[in-house]
Amino acid sequence: MSIWGHIFAAMYDRMLGKTERAGLGDHRRALLAAANGDVLEIGGGTGANLEYYGGGVRTLTIVEPEKPMLRRLQRHIERSAPQAKALRAPAEDLPFNDASFDVVVSTLVLCTVDDVPRALRELHRVLRPGGKLLFIEHVRSDDPALARTQDRMLPINVRIAHGCHPNRRTLDSIRDAGFEITSLEHDTLKHTPKFIQPLIFGVATRQAETAATGTSETSSERLETPTFS
């Protein structure tokens, strides 16, 4: 882990503070009202979503690949959501059996994963039939001029924002992974540079098995969905 990774984790909540108060927190609240049953959150970061999960959640499992973020997440869980379980794992290699969850949550995560198609195949795999993917992601702009700016700024943003690729066509990737988009809205991330502002949030439903998920198989080493009392 680089020194910048530790600094980024320490600064993350303060960097997004104004953005959360200017609408992102409201989007989290509205989206996560639909979370129920056994829920998996990928890229949990410092735990920004924890306060928005409601009583319909039976179990909450959060994975985070970065050690500095995971430590902060675990402290946040101890303070405000002791029933949740956090573990270190990347979205591209989830340590869970097939069809383990009713809902998967991804908020500002798919811009940073190394392999978007593989990560989405994993989300499809661990969801039960009819399960939901709840997402908030910043994406490539529909404005060609702004999209070109996103491309030009990408090398700088990847370094400063610890791997963030704001120019990805994430909605297309979600569809390509075998999900049906059942709810979709557009907005902007307030108090951020214009080239990372285009935002989508919504719900995608896991469709039947497709070629996109045909290579998945259950491993005996994968974890069962944890149950909390």
List keywords for this structure.
about 230 residues, Rossmann fold, 7 strands, alpha/beta
Report the mean per-residue pLDDT as an integer.
89
Which structural class do you get from the secondary structure elements? alpha/beta
Low-confidence blocks of residues: 211-221, 225-229
Radius of gyration: 17 Å
Q: Indicate the CATH topology.
A: Rossmann fold
- Which term fits the overall shape? globular
Arrangement of strands in the largest sheet: 3-2-1-4-5-7-6
Structure, briefly:
By secondary structure, this protein is α/β, with parallel strands linked by helices.
Protein architecture, described:
- With 229 residues, the chain is α/β, with parallel strands linked by helices.
- The protein has one domain (3-209): Vaccinia Virus protein VP39 (Rossmann fold, 3-Layer(aba) Sandwich).
- It is built from six helices and seven strands.
- The chain has helices at 3-15, 17-32, 67-80, 116-126, 144-160, 170-176; strands at residues 37-41, 57-63, 85-87, 101-107, 127-138, 179-188, 198-206.
- The protein has a seven-stranded mixed beta sheet, sandwiched between helices.
- α3 links the parallel β2 and β3 (85-87).
- The longest helix has 17 residues, at 144-160.
- The protein is globular.
- The N and C termini lie far apart (35 Å).
Give a topology summary.
Layout: H1 3-15, H2 17-32, E1 37-41, E2 57-63, H3 67-80, E3 85-87, E4 101-107, H4 116-126, E5 127-138, H5 144-160, H6 170-176, E6 179-188, E7 198-206
Parallel strand pairs: 1-2, 1-4, 2-3, 4-5
Antiparallel strand pairs: 5-7, 6-7
